[in-house]
Amino acid sequence: MAIRHPLPDPGWPSAETAARSRLFSPLRVGDFTASSRTWVPAMVPWRATDEGFVTPDVLAWYRRFAEGRPGVIVVEATGIREVPSGPLLRAGHDRFVPGLAELTRAVHEASAGETRILIQLIDFLRIRRRPRKEDFLARFLTITDRHRERVGVEDEAALRARLAELPHEELLDLLAPS
Asked: How crowded is residue 148: how many other Cβ atoms within 10 Å of its Cβ?
């Protein structure tokens, strides 16, 4: 296929052209101004301790990006709960503040103060799945007098066993609010 419109040779921009580019111009973001419109997005480098503390590897990772002087670096997904989350940073307690402050200093030093640092917070919620019917009936169902009367069994263990044997529609009817 013939090329209808050849692309012009772009050449490299001069320092003056690059300096005038919007990419390298300041950007107002909320209450602060980034020195340029270049951002390093949040990534998950898995370099923190299993307890969520900043390590020398975390500092080196972000320092390398900061040396390029982007306008903003977004720190990886950082947990806010006391939930084990593997080697991801955490920020849900004051004990994490010294390491995060050290990370901030490292970025500012490496970028000569040009790079702003933001943190992406994440809440590792416990995901609860609906329990299996057998588990629900054996462990979670609160037995009431209504259940005892309708099934005709007083002993709780025997009642739970009987409920597990009921046909599905009958069980739904029995468990439906009256």
From this structure: 14
